[in-house]
Design a protein that fits this description.
The protein has 2 helices and 8 strands, in the order ββββαββββα. It is 18% helix and 28% strand.
Length: 174
């Protein structure tokens, strides 16, 4: 018989999250590659990923964006001034995130995309040197995101939208 997992003794994984805005005030979203148990309606998210030991969160954000979307033509607009976190649901605890973490603590950055859309390539990101994490991408209104993310990240995305929407709207006079 296996021992139950004690969530309280598990650490959070530190990550960087990225919100990229185009010249219309829409945000870049990627559709995660299909995974068992994830409803099709909840596969869209912003690029994000782990911060390597000793890595600066801003540099991690730029690296993760490039590794997931091939984008590098960006300018920093805003850094969310606090860490946002989510916990994995019980059924994923000990399975997701290599089974080592209770959830993630994320530092979020908002960038303006200043390149040509031909730069974006989710099928062969990082100039083909990184495996694809998204099957497709789209520009969307930021307010759509909490309804498109997996349910256990919805509260984090609601808080994120509330924090970054004023920055995006200020940039674009929406």
């Amino acid at each position: 018989m296996t021992q139950p997992i004690d969530r309280e003794k598990m650490p959070y994984r530190f990550c960087a999250g990225v919100c990229v805005v185009n010249d219309k005030g829409e945000v870049f979203t990627g559709r995660r590659l299909a995974k068992p148990g994830v409803p099709q309606s909840h596969e869209w998210q912003f690029p994000q990923g782990g911060i390597d030991k000793g890595e600066d969160p801003l540099e991690a954000a730029k690296r993760e964006l490039y590794e997931e979307s091939n984008m590098s033509s960006i300018e920093l607009i805003y850094e969310v001034p606090k860490w946002l976190s989510y916990d994995l649901p019980e059924e994923l605890l000990g399975k997701a995130l290599k089974g080592k973490y209770r959830g993630q603590q994320q530092r979020w950055f908002v960038f303006r995309f200043v390149g040509d859309e031909s730069e974006i390539n989710v099928e062969r990101p990082a100039d083909g040197t990184h495996p694809a994490e998204f099957s497709e991408w789209a520009w969307r209104p930021i307010g759509d995101m909490p309804d498109l993310i997996v349910p256990f990240k919805k509260e984090l995305y609601q808080e994120l939208v509330a924090l970054v929407r004023p920055q995006i709207e200020g940039e674009h006079q929406i």
